[in-house]
Amino acid sequence: MIKASTWQVVKTLMRRDLKVALRRRSDIINPLLFVLMVVSLFPLAVGPGPDVLGRIAAGVIWVTALLAALLGSERLFRDDYLDGSLEQMILLPVPLPVLALAKIAIHWLLSGLPLVILAPLAALLLKLPVEGWSTLLLTLLLGTPILSALTAIGAALTVSLGRGGALLSLLLLPLFIPLLIFAAAAVEGALVGAPVVGQVVLLAGLMVLTLTLAPLAVAGAIRVSVN
Asked: Which Pfam families match (predicted)?
């Protein structure tokens, strides 16, 4: 069982990150604006026909979510690295993977959860049939934590490289591909009435595996980057 002092440190870290994020509201608003712009402009490019839009809506929403997760992701640990907070995190009497998991949770609250909330509006704009809405929301609930965890790994690996946004994207995009395939396949299966339990269980397993291993990888990457 994690000691009470550990929980106190984690809560303090999460509270601090939330306060910092609220001071930089553009970091929260920009990904949401990006999603809204893409789902609003996409029908103009391919035409407003519901047959075409409904068939590709799930893929468009998920690709948009992937790209939105990358916006500003390089700052996940960058500010802490520049002001010395990252070194203090290593020296705290708390397991570094626990603090890394807290950072992942904050990233999901600020970027993943708003995307889940915005998903019904995106589905409506892209004319996704109602039969696929619940599956889309479920895949986003299971998939966005994976996005946050993988983003944290990439951000920790590139934190000491200055402007590492391009490198971060190159590192993460191949890791996002399996998630994109299974999530889009689940929604497409729901639209044709096929069972989607297999895809959903697989996404849930990926989420558990990623959230278990990612904090360890982030902690190792932070130690290498700081030292």
From this structure: CcmB (PF03379)
- φ, ψ of residue 195 to 5 degrees: the values are -65, 135
Q: Classify residue 130 by its DSSP letter.
A: G
Q: Is the pTM of this model over 0.85?
A: yes
Q: How far is CA 203 from CA 43, 96, 116, 134, 157, in A?
A: 28, 26, 16, 15, 25
Helix axes 133-157, 113-125, angle to 10 degrees: 130
Residue 165: predicted pLDDT: 55
Those residues with Cβ within 8 angstroms of residue 187's Cβ, 6 or more apart along the chain or in another chain = 58, 128, 132, 135, 136, 139, 196
Under DSSP, the state recorded for 24 is S
Task: Encode pLDDT of 78-137 as tens digits.
Answer: 777 777 778 888 888 888 899 899 899 988 988 888 888 888 888 888 888 888 889 999
Cβ neighbours around 92 below 10 Å, total: 14
Helices 75-82/133-157 angle, 10° precision? 30
Q: Which of 93, 87, 148, 92 is nearest to 115 (CA)?
A: 148
CA gap 175, 169 in Å, rounded: 10
Q: Is 159 helix (H, G, I), strand (E, B) or coil?
A: coil
Cβ 203 vs Cβ 178: under 8 Å? no
Going from N- to C-terminal start, the domains of the chain cover: 4-226
